[in-house]
Amino acid sequence: MSDTVQAYILIQTEVGKAASVASEISNISGVTLAEDVTGPYDVIVRAEASNVDELGRLVVAKVQGVPGITRTLTCPIVHI
What we know:
Blueprint: E1 5-13, H1 18-25, E2 31-36, E3 43-49, H2 52-62, E4 69-76
Antiparallel strand pairs: 1-3, 1-4, 2-3
């Protein structure tokens, strides 16, 4: 099992911004996948970090700073 912390980040964007948000987020270090989707969220991101604190910094300092984002929900992956 990997020592990294992984999470899905569910993102709501301003109308018409999903594709540009997904494209910009895909360039952030630690993001392994960013796709625009339909449904209650506009973009789903998979990210990884070395620990929970680093994951939090990734979400708050980098992901939430992308223009067009209105809300994020971070869902850490657990291995049960």
